Amino acid sequence: MAKVDWPTLGSFTLRGSFPNDADRLVTESLPSMFRRMPALEHLDITAALFHYTTTRCCVLSSNLALLNVGLNSLQSLTIAYPDPNDNIFSIPLPRLTRLELRDWPRHYDIVAHEYYSRAWRSPILSATEALSVLRRQVQAPQLTVLELVYFADEADDDLIAFIAHALSKLQHLQLHRYRRSSEEAVDH
To answer: Is the dihedral of CA 178, 180, 186, 188 positive or negative?
Structure first.
């Protein structure tokens, strides 16, 4: 796929699972694929992570990937278990209206069901990591839809305040906020 031009492809979805940390073929191929997809408007990478993996989903892993990556038309970005250091959050996405930083399978399913917890892990973002990503993604001034899955930490209030003040065009906000422990009181 990375060696073929896709001049009119508007939507690209990768679903399933990343088999292991050593299998970087997919993420290493993505930057060259994006350059061949100039009309790409919707990117969805919703892949589960096996319990024995240690990495998160990283779409643009190197600084070299930032050079002419070809995502200028991107309007919608969905990533399950995003790496907060992913360079995709450092490039301007001026047409981005929808951002989903989520989990798949859902974190609550992995926690609640032994079948899921034996097979999958759910390294969701912390509030600190989510805030870092969103601060870098302010380069998406048209954002109207945000889905965010995260663990509360000391940056929880700052994250909510940032969303309220910096993302003024939001029309739809979906938060999945998890406590650090089941004993923790919820004040939101």
So the answer is: negative
